[in-house]
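User: We ran a pulldown and think these components assemble together. Before we commit to crystallization trials, I'd like a predicted model of the whole complex to look at. Sequences follow.
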Amino acid sequence: MTEPELHIRPADISDIKAIMALEEGSIAHPWTSEEIGTLITDPRKKCLVAVLDGKVVCYAGSETVLDECNIGNLVTDKEYRGRGFASVLMNALLEDLKDSGIKKVFLEVEHDNLPALSLYEKLGFARYGQRRGYYGAGRDAVLMRKEL
Ligand SMILES: CC(C)(COP(=O)(O)OP(=O)(O)OC[C@H]1O[C@@H](n2cnc3c(N)ncnc32)[C@H](O)[C@@H]1OP(=O)(O)O)[C@@H](O)C(=O)NCCC(=O)NCCS
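Assistant: Here's a predicted model for the assembly, 148 residues in total across the polymer chains.
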């Protein structure tokens, strides 16, 4: 039997529930459905989902200001991690941003989030600073950027 293929597409309103489920299983302060709705519908924002066999297994979101962009969301379903899905989705998002004229991409990641730090470094993001207590006491953010 052949493996089902991962399909990348822009999120739409009908994906909010699935995206919320990804957030709630993985993020300490999950985004609300209103915030996810805005991520999907606001023209300055982009939200892509990776779908496997009809199920949303990973999503990523970004916000653009002029020719710069911040990636504020990336989650893979716990059951589907380590299979390269976030890498495929992030490469698709970066390609999409580049095609839209974005020159620089920024993101923040918690200093001890090793899977995410490793993934972003692999994708070519470089560290340029650290923001103390960004996520709460003793929880620093590593600031990363990449030129497209
Ligand atoms: C970070 C996250 C999105 C990675 O998703 P994923 O689909 O498992 O990632 P991939 O399978 O594409 O892995 C790509 C790379 O990430 C790194 N990585 C992934 N899981 C890792 C782990 N458990 N430990 C160390 N590095 C890891 C590796 O460099 C990996 O490359 P490799 O497979 O060649 O070693 C996922 O762990 C997640 O959803 N975490 C919770 C939410 C979160 O922290 N999001 C980031 C907020 S900034």
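The first strand starts at residue 6 and ends at 10. That may be worth checking against your pulldown data before setting up trials.

User: Thanks, that helps.
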